[in-house]
Amino acid sequence: MTGFLIRRILQAIIVVIGVTIIAFILQNLIATGPALAHTIIGPRATSQQIHEFIATYGLNQPMPVQYWHFLWQLLHGNLGYSFKENQSVDAILGQQLPKDVVLVGSSLVLSLLIAIPLGIAQAVRRNRLVDHVGTGLSFLLYSMPTYWLSLLLIAAFSVSLQWLPAEAPQGTNVGQILADPAGLVLPIASLTLVNYALFSRYMRSSAIENLAQDYIRTARAKGLSERYLLARHLLRNSLIPVTTMVGLSLPGILTAGLVTEYVFNFPGIGLTFFNAAVTSDYPVELGIAVLVGLVTVAGNVLADIGYAVLDPRVRYE
Amino acid sequence: MAPVLEITDLRTEIRLRTSTVHAVDGVSLTVQAGETVGLVGESGCGKTTIGLSAIRLLPPGGHITGGSIKINGTEIVGLPDARMRQIRGGDVGMIFQDPMTSLNPTMPIGEQIAETVRVHKRVSHRAAVDRAVEVLDLVGMPRPRERLGDFPHQLSGGLRQRVMIAMALACEPSVLIADEPTTAVDVTIQAQILGLLDRLKSELSTAMLLISHDMGVIAGRADRVAVMYAGRVVEQAETVEFFDHIRHPYAEALLASIPQPGQDSQRALYSIPGNPPDLSNPPAACRFAPRCRYATDRCRTEDPRLEQDAAAHGYACFHPVPADDVRPEAAGLRLAAQARLRETRRTDADDLILDARNLVKEYPITAGLLQRTIGSVKAVSDVSFGIRRGETFGLVGESGCGKTTIGRLLVGLERLTGGQIVFNGADISALATRSRPAHGGGPDDPAQAGSRRRQISRLRRDLQLMFQDPYSSLDPRMRVGTILREPLVIQGIGSRREQDQRVAAMLTEVGLQPAAADRYPHEFSGGQRQRIGLARALMLDPKFLIADEPVSALDVSIRSQILNLMRDLQDRHNLTYLIISHDLAVVRYMADRIGVVYLGKLVESGPADTVYSTPAHPYTAALISAIPSPDPHSERGRNRTQVRGELPSAVNPPSGCRFRTRCAIAEEICAEVEPPVHSFGVDHYASCHFPLQRPVPPAGTDGALVRTQQDPIADRPPASGRLVPDTTGDAVAGQ
Ligand SMILES: Nc1ncnc2c1ncn2[C@@H]1O[C@H](COP(=O)(O)OP(=O)(O)O)[C@@H](O)[C@H]1O
Ligand code: SF4
Ligand code: SF4
Ligand SMILES: [Mg+2]
Question: Are B61 and B20 in contact (CB under 8 A)?
Fold first, then answer.
């Protein structure tokens, strides 16, 4: 177990270093030094202001030194200070992250709650109506870009039917967001549909594969009812590959979340990232890159844990 | 007394997209309480479909289209699903072939047994668990209560099959259907499992339908026999009556194509030509006619019905085998009499084509972050043998004993951990050993090393391996011609035209049409694929061929075709064979000399007939006694010297003699001192402290196994009297 943990921590370090190096290089390719300062402060910046800006953020140092400085701060849990907002990056992320947990987390749970039973139902009634409808639906959703799906939902439920607001609730903390549940429906729904499309394909094929296994035949030969058999024998075994897949696609799910946030103007990490990119707020961009890197590793760990919990044959050392 | 299971004129079809397989076509069978009916036939003849019809769990597309199945008088064809579920697991217990895949891998075994009880008996969870403990105990699971939480992968193959049996018996069914219950386990475990089933059947007076492809299993365990061919029962009788007076030509031919204990290994085996008919379009005539030696025009136009004679012996044939041939081997002998005698090969004990000296292979087990080596699997531990030019040497042993690893070491597919392989007088271990100069000495200059490497690879051309599984060893995307040409292309031999000619010639030689070169492997049957495998191994005209389980994936009637072909090719090309198999009967029939391997050690070696008739090592004796022979007389009267338990782990092999944990006559010294090699006559060696015969000083020198070690107890009397027969037929698995 300790060996497993050490491996995963090493992996996290490598991923974070890799992601930030790439981000660093890209940022330096776009603009550095005075050019960057101009972008941030504005066209009418005085040379005095520019000088101060460069000195404050250490932009006059060579790139490796800057990077080393960044890493050193990161080691102390300090992601730096935003160019634009009068806040530390830690504070910004700390404020936005819980709202994303609400958005991404609830849609993740919802999509699994739909995809698992539906996937099993499709497998059991393979090539029958339920299956064809399910397959058609998930292919349709899967082939649709996230923002396009979001726009369609807005067009249907906000513009035409006028049932639901097109904009997500605004607020700085989770409580304020939850105070306006109607505004949450469309963002969560669109993210849920995107995830559902992915998961239900996996769930269906995993369930089909397991239904053909000998142990299912044995369970039937014992006289178990079909419902009991699906719940007690098929479910756990079919979930094994799906768990891994969900864990590994966590970064992708997060990315879809970023797009959704932008479309619905949801005040979360995604919107923050988008704004930071527009305004060249490098420290915020880097902070979010670190976050995505960590989520990737966390997804891997969750996949491993889920796998080990479901499958007694797996043990980590 | 009404039969417990009564099948009348059953017809079962499997509807596929483009065709309908008539898997069972008018079969009638009855099984009484306390009776075992053996259903025997080759794969695909419909045995499993009958079993699955009886619990109405047919594969997708499967339908019962006619006839009736009564269980305890209840007609189950058309029975509502809810009632059917009560019968499954309640009245009928089912035992499937492969205990690994047939148990749920993510559910503890206790729960898998208890849930059956809960479903059928409406008892509390506690009572169901208690019942699980009870049946586990009944099937010989040691300390059952402690094992309830185990998952299937934590159990050995034999124990898993016991769990499967416990599950089937949990609700005291009146019918037990065992579909190839021992096909997936080793022969020593097979003997244990069959003994167990036998005991349980009589104790609980269950009606048992025992399905097997193995005539030997049926002869020893069934009260009545039904032989199936192409979806029909072709012969049916009480077991002794059946084996004494076989009437149907198919049953006769099937029996004659198995190498039997008394088989004269100089005679070719009888082999049934051709393949079984396609069941999606069965002929409206005798289905065996295209392969039958006695077929007449009537057989080819009319469909014989299953007739009963006075002795209640039924057979579906117009020209049955005369009933006065009373000896069980009669069939084999009569058919074999026509088979050609092969000449005895002369081999020279000093002319070794291959000399394996002290072979060692260990696979390291690593763990942790730094992949530290924490132990090793001792797959092959100090094995030595010599193979003479022109002979067939057979290696036998249970699965996991290291046979296959030895074969792979010899052809260089695995690197040696230690030891030396001399082939045709030259040391070829260099390529098989990591960073070790071939002839000792320091690191020599690269040019020389390179040329020796080439030389060794040329030598290796003479040493070919024929792969085990005809289904997975041929690349499905390559045409047969390309597969066969490949070795020539790699070695750069001949022009394209010459290569094609060689392919055509080789195909003809293994009994296929040259046109086969243009087709893909999946278009061929298992036996044909094995012929292709043989052709591929022979493309480079090797002198030595290693065949790992050459026939174990094949049906009985196809097996003898391949074995005969292998012998023909040996005679024609002066080949030397190393045949590796778990099947002692096959090895004995094919080999001049045999080596018996147990847990990485060669425990006995000697001339095939000598080892088979007078084994010196207790393991060899037990292995021989575990082979079921298709003769009810010898099978029933037999005192089985069973091997207890199962093969221990090769990570921590037992100290001293590795067989001691399962040996019936082990004593203290066996755990302390590794037994020395004794000689028991010409070429016959075994390593045991208490061999079954008195050792004699070595007469000739084999140079392979014999060591000049003096053993203090070599003069003790033979220990055969102390081999205690296990009459319960059900030794409990030890640890
Ligand atoms: N799931 C299936 N799909 C299609 N054909 C099948 C299936 N199972 C069995 N069959 C066919 O039914 C026939 C009988 O098969 P089976 O009952 O399994 O024979 P056995 O048990 O004697 O080997 C064979 O021709 C086989 O190919
Ligand atoms: S009926 Fe004719 S073809 Fe069929 S088994 Fe008898 S003799 Fe052979
Ligand atoms: S040495 Fe001992 S344990 Fe080993 S086979 Fe001989 S008697 Fe049995
Ligand atoms: Mg079968």
Answer: no
The three-state (H, E, C) secondary structure of B470-489, written as one string = CCCCCCCCCCHHHHHHHHHH
In a domain, B152, yes or no: yes
- Is the same domain home to B667 and B719? yes
Q: Do B327 and B422 belong together in one domain?
A: no
B74 and B212 inside one domain: yes
Q: What is the DSSP letter of A155?
A: I
B303 and B368 in a single domain? The answer is no
Smallest CA–CA distance from A308 into chain B, residue = B106
Picking from A213, A218, A307 by the largest number of B CB atoms within 10 A of its own CB, the best residue to mutate is: A218
Domain with B427 in it: what CATH number?
3.40.50.300
Q: Do residues B169 and B204 lie in contact, with contact meaning Cβ atoms separated by under 8 Å? A: yes
**Using one digit for the tens of pLDDT, what is the confidence trace for B471-504?**
777 888 889 999 999 888 888 888 899 999 999 9
Question: Which residue of chain B comes nearest to A213, CA vs CA?
Answer: B101
pLDDT at B386 over 90: yes
For tokens 């020599």, name the residue. Answer: B444
Q: Does residue B10 sit in the same domain as residue B147?
A: yes
Partners of B106 on chain A (C-beta within 8 Å) are 236-237, 240, 310-312
The span from the CA of B208 to the CA of B33, in Å, is 8
Q: Let me know whether B18 and B117 are in one domain.
A: yes
Write the pLDDT tens digit of every residue in A17-70. 888 888 888 877 777 777 777 777 777 777 888 888 787 777 777 888 888 888
All domains in chain A, ordered by first residue: 91-310 (1.10.3720.10)
pLDDT given for residue B721 in this prediction: 34
Query: What pLDDT is stored for residue B339 in this prediction?
Result: 52
Residue B682 lies in a domain: yes
A229 interface with B at CB cutoff 8 Å: no
* Ligand 1 pocket, residues with Cβ under 6 angstroms: B 14, 16, 21, 23, 41, 43-49, 59, 279
Contact of A270 with A288, CB cutoff 8 Å: no
Residue B675, ligand 3, Cβ within 6 A: yes
Q: What is the 3-state secondary structure (H, E, C) of B26-39?
A: EEEEEECCCCEEEE
ipTM of the complex as predicted: 0.84
Interface test with A, best of B125, B183, B369, B373 (most A CBs within 10 A): B369
Q: How many structural domains is chain B composed of?
A: 3
CA of B660 to the centre of ligand 3 (A): 5
pTM for this prediction: 0.83
Distance from the Cα of A312 to chain B's closest Cα (Å) equals: 6
